[in-house]
Amino acid sequence: MSESLHVTGNTREEQYLSLLPQIEALAKDKAAKWAVLGNIMAALKYGMNFFWVGLYLVKDEHLILGPFQGPVACTQIPFGKGVCGAAWKNKKTFIVQDVNDFEGHIACSSATKSEIVLPIFDKNGEVIMTLDIDSELLTNFNETDEKYLMQVAGIIEQVVLGE
Fold first, then answer.
1. Over the stretch 53-105, which tens digit does the pLDDT of each residue have?
2. Is residue 40 part of a domain?
3. Is the pLDDT of residue 160 over 60?
4. Which among 38, 45, 103, 141 could bridge 67 via Cys, Cβ 3.0 to 4.6 Å?
5. 52 contacts 133 by C-beta, under 8 angstroms
6. By CB neighbour count within 10 A (0-12 exposed, 13-18 middle, 19+ buried), where does 5 fall?
7. CA 8, CA 17: separation in Å to the nearest integer?
8. Are the beta carbons of 130 and 88 closer than 8 angstroms?
9. d(CA 100, CA 113)
10. How confident is the model at residue 163 (pLDDT cuts 50, 70, 90)?
């Protein structure tokens, strides 16, 4: 699949509504799941103009950097540490409007100002990875992002679990 990404819309919601069918199409690619996930990360980053988008995979007591798009990133995050570790530990989405206000924030890039992290689950309800999205703008994420990124997380779950 070598189609170019085309996202339209004036509002963030309209942009997500334009992007979601493209992510769903990418998820149907029969390539290796890591290649598919890499393309989904690219679609999110460039479709929504985010600073950094990536997956952290649960391995033992750490999150290990998986497919991502953006500047160099932290390669591992301990359980419960930083926003990603907190989303893993608490099994819930975290929206951080100012990363400097999040106690224990791990600064992989000093350019990151706000962040949203969503846990991704296996069939037993255990976190298998986190979807981490960073912005160089303060207060860049809200409930609209959470709503549509939860749909993206569901697509990622299907890719990873082979459904």
1. 999 999 999 999 999 999 999 899 999 899 999 999 999 999 999 988 888 77
2. yes
3. yes
4. 38
5. yes
6. middle
7. 9
8. yes
9. 8
10. low
6 located within any domain:
no
Is residue 56 in a domain? Answer: yes
Tokens 């699949």, residue?
1
The C-alpha atoms of residue 50 and residue 33 are separated, in whole angstroms, by: 22
Tokens 């963030």 belong to residue: 12
- Which domain range does residue 155 map to? 12-161
Judge contact between 109 and 103, C-beta under 8 A: no
When divided into structural domains, the chain yields a total of 1
Query: What's residue 17's pLDDT?
Result: 95
Q: What's the residue count for the chain?
A: 163
Spell out the alpha helix ranges (H) of 28-121.
33-48, 82-90
Provide the 3-class DSSP secondary structure of residue 95.
strand
CATH number at residue 22: 3.30.450.40
H helical segments located in 5-139: 12-27, 33-48, 82-90
How far is residue 90 from each of residues 86, 87, 159, measured CA to CA in Å?
A: 6, 5, 23
Residue showing tokens 């999040």: 102
61 within a domain of the structure (yes/no)? yes
Question: 36 is written with which tokens?
Answer: 């598919």
